[in-house]
Amino acid sequence: MKNLRNEFPVLQQYTYLNTASSGLLYDTLLDFRQEHDLDFLIGGSKFRDSQQQFLNSVRTTIAEFFGASTKNTILTPNFSTGLNTILQDISKDQKVLLLDDDYPSINFSVRSKGFDTCYAKIDEHLEQNIMSSIEQHKPDIFIFSIVQYISGIKIDLDIIKQLKNSYPELLIIADGTQFCGTAVFNFANSGIDILGCSGYKWLLGGYGNGFLLFQDGMLDHLTPKMYIEAAKNENYDSSYISLPARFECGHLDTFNFGSLEYSLRHLSKIGLSEIEQKIKMLGSYSKEELQKLNLLGSEVVSRKKHSTILNIKGDQKLFLHLKEHGIITSLRGYGVRISLHFYNTIEDIDQLLTQLHRYR
């Protein structure tokens, strides 16, 4: 897997520990993108004649990658756009459970639309906090990020299955943007009703693409009856009036969605199980070494399982020190966030540790 680093030019210049901010483009993806636009350049409108077939292929690839149904796979420019479309069609008398300090695209979107909200605290007892909040507040909907963007705390997905079994009427909506592409995952038996994801981070798809996965019946459940009745009485092409049409409005960009499909196939060739094992190893090593330096929060240290997003105690001075030495990270929340993907190595982490020792 180490040889795969050669496909990522950024890695020749920097120690890149910032996939949680943006995944990297790579040489063969660039080849695809250039060929795509060359075909558009010389074909004009003829190039668009096969758009529907092309986008159907993208939906199928996404569905196969995540163990979902093609007919229930929706293409969206990003997770936030998809979530806001969903929220528009949910009655505002529904109570929504959120995680405190979750990604603003979730929490602000819900609060700004006037939903009654309740919260579970993000700490070492996250799953227990969720259970307690559900028992106490009895929400109708639970919306959350699988992996927290600040701390990297990853929810135990087995708990989500238990929640669905215990509360089958609870609508469970998950943001997988910081999760999808890091582990083998089967949506069909996940207990999640709707999974959304932007493709520019761990899926390495570049910007402007994402998707929503729905369990069977969910699209119908969330579509206003008024819309369904109106569609029955119209003779428009189905691309304008079908259930997916509410999400896939206008022309979808084959450049962006084609990039996502290309990267999903690329990750499949590498092997998602191999990617999962590689980043688990990197994450464990990083956590262990940073813990020795007392640079991790207690809520992270106390958890047995964690993602490869870690927030180091530090400020802008530390962030700039690392940047000056070619180590790319992000300032997030209470510290300096690092994030590791399969193209990272133990040597990358050791470079970080060296500079942390020098800074101290």
Automatic annotation (TrEMBL):
Keywords per UniProt: Lyase, Pyridoxal phosphate
Designated name of the protein: Selenocysteine lyase/Cysteine desulfurase
Database matches in SUPFAM superfamilies: PLP-dependent transferases
Region forming the signal peptide: none
InterPro entries xref list: Aminotrans_V_dom (IPR000192), PyrdxlP-dep_Trfase (IPR015424), PyrdxlP-dep_Trfase_major (IPR015421), PyrdxlP-dep_Trfase_small (IPR015422)
PANTHER family assigned: BLR3095 PROTEIN, CYSTEINE DESULFURASE
Organism: Aquimarina spongiae
Coiled-coil region(s): none
